Amino acid sequence: MLHNDVIAAFVASLSLLAATGQEPATVQTPASQARPAPPASPAPPAPPAPSDPFAGNWRGTVTASAGNPSPIIITLVKKGDGYVGSTNGLNAASESALKRASVTGPTTIAIEAADESKLGTIALASELTVDGNAAKGGGTLTVGAQKFGVTLALQRRPRAEAIQPHVEQRVDYFVGRWRFEYIGGEYPPLSAGNRSGTATFTRSGTSNFVTGSIEGDPGGTAYRETMSIGLDPDTNAMAFVERRSDGVELVSVASWRSPIAISFQTSPLQANGRTYQLRRVIAVRSTTAFDVSEEFSIDGGPFRRLGDAHYTKNP
Q1: Residues 6 or more apart from 180 whose CB is under 8 A from it?
Q2: Predicted confidence (pLDDT) at residue 239 exceeds the cutoff of 90
Q3: What phi and psi, each to the nearest 5 degrees, are found at residue 33?
Q4: Helix, strand and coil percent figures for the chain, each rounded to 5
Q5: Which domains does the chain have, with CATH numbers?
Q6: Which residues on neighbouring strands pair with residue 156, listed in sequence order?
């Protein structure tokens, strides 16, 4: 270690002399003691530049303007021409699928995430500027009715300690009986409002489809719908067909490329002279739990929050 320190000090002195325009003093060495100079060591290779400016596991902190830093992990995955992903740390150790990840410039990306807590909805909105393996930016953190300004400082690095669901992407994942709790607005024809109940799915023979029924009790009134879910195991493309007791039918095409989230939009629904559309994210928590968040749009307008559901498989 001492030998290395001496070499480092010697190199530093040469650099300092070169910066001041001086020549280093020549040290006379007897010929009998002269030794050939060792070959110069090759310079260490520079770390490779990321092939994708945004994809990866970003670990760091989110800090409110009047608070202490809190750890957060943001995962971004390339999907088609855009990105999907998740956050870990927004609400304790839970995994939350990103609601939006939109590239806004060559080195900037805007993200939105939300999760439910005992204090109400926790939502994060931020625009990050990426510089190699570092990212930083500002945004807002909303907890219930409170809103705070925040800053994020992140590094792209492995994520060994993060809780990652290990769920095989198979249509059999949905098979079984699930209990659910939905909290959201009553908005016909899209939603019957707050409700709880059961969802039961069975495999359709040897096909890659499952069929089932969802039964609930919004406002003490019986609620029922049937659903078919199909999955192409080669491409992870998915199809959802929902038929409700009031005659409403919703058809959706989605992709399960990311093991932690399924994002999709329903086909437009015509009702009452208007055009409605739902946008959903299924966040896969584990082999026995998943969450569904819903937003809706009217006549092509901006999407707004509709509600959230939590599903737990009965043993």
Answers
A1: 196, 197, 198, 199, 214, 216, 309, 310, 311, 312
A2: yes
A3: -100, -5
A4: 10, 55, 35
A5: 56-156 (2.40.128), 171-313 (2.40.128.20)
A6: 58
